[in-house]
Amino acid sequence: MKRNPPSPLLRKEAKIAWLMMAPALIVLCIVAVYPVLRTFWLSLREMSLKNPGSGFPFIGLANYAETFTDSRAITDILFTAKFTLITVALELLFGFGAALLMNQPFRGRGLTRAAILVPWAIPTSVSALMWKFIYNDQYGLFNDILYRLGVIPAYRSWLSTSSDTFMSLVITDVWKTFPFMALLILAGLQMLPAELYESAKLDGAGVFKRFRHITLPLMKRTLLVALLFRTLDAFRVFDLISVMTGGANGTESIAIYAHKQMMSFLNFGYGSALAVIIFLVVFIISLIYMRFIGSDMLPIE
Predict the structure, then answer these.
(1) Average pLDDT over residues 274-297
(2) pLDDT for 108-137, tens place per residue?
(3) From the CA atom positions of the chain, what is the Rg in Å?
């Protein structure tokens, strides 16, 4: 069936809308689109500031091919993926639990909601520095608490071995960002119709059945949105690890490695290629999440 052309009024409104969006689109291109395109352009060149007289020749995808033979880059990508999976899973678990608790009526609920957001409001670099002092092997609060509880026989350095350092980073990141998950999930919980829960109670459904058959199915898209934001943020982790360990003890993320390539080794070509790879991975993750968010997949029986 042939569509009717838009009326002059609709065309005029569309033109006004584009004019009003133009400033925002221009700013977006300056702060987002141009840096991405510039980084991609740099990744196609042999651009090392240690050899400024080379003229920075065009080498195509050679920098990208180098990542497949760079064991350090592969190790960092695997570490970043591992860190992302574990922290996001724990943040979802604790965030969902905190949201369910804050959604219940009890005295002091407003104060609890405000207090739980404090870790998220603290800048990441400040949180990392604070937890670095907490993990100190001589006067750290973490050692003191565990020692008094009899969990450890003596004070230990939590940032000296690979396993302890990874655990410390996970604890810090979960403490810092699970309130963000809780805030998003709480907003979704408050939009659920109370009539469904009242009907389920009348039908004899217990707490677990109401949670499984009402809360989870209706919260599917909210949970996916929360997971999307946290997954993208966790995979780009930089400041937390940079402040706490600097990438030592096998905790170097791919973002830190890209930064070192450019700032320490002055290899802007290869560093830009690593940055573009991070962008592509994040973009693919976004597409996957959006595929689930925009469909009726992942049914929960």
Answers:
(1) 82
(2) 778 888 888 889 989 999 999 999 999 998
(3) 24
pLDDT digits (tens, 9 = 90+) for 234-260: 999 999 999 999 998 999 999 999 999
What tens digit of pLDDT does each residue of 160-201 get?
A: 889 999 999 999 999 999 999 999 999 888 888 888 878 878
Buried b or exposed e, range 178-211, using 16+ CB within 10 angstroms = bbbbbbbbbebbeeeeeeeeeebeeeebeeeebe
Asked if 236 and 255 touch (Cβ cutoff 8 Å), the reply is yes
Domain ranges of the chain: 67-122+177-293
| Contact by Cβ (8 Å): 276, 43 | yes
> Which one-letter amino acid corresponds to residue 123?
P
DSSP states of 99-165: HHHHTS--TTHHHHHHHHTHHHHS-HHHHHHHHHHHT-TTT-HHHHHHHHTTSSSS---TTSSHHHH
Do 169 and 233 meet the contact criterion of CB atoms below 8 Å apart? no
Neighbouring residues of 154: CB distance < 8 A, sequence distance ≥ 6: 147
Report the amino acid identity of residue 72: R
What's the CA gap between 203 and 197, in Å, rounded? 10
Q: CA–CA separation, 211 vs 223, rounded Å?
A: 14
Fold of 67-122+177-293: MetI-like fold (1.10.3720)
The secondary structure element, H or E, covering residue 193 is none
Query: How many residues are there in the chain?
Result: 301
User: Which pLDDT score, from 0 to 100, does residue 231 have?
Assistant: 92
- Name residue 45's beta-bridge partners: 58
- Cβ partners under 8 Å of residue 23, min gap 6: none
| Rounded Cα distance, 116 and 254, in Å | 30
- Lookup: tokens for 42: 């740099």
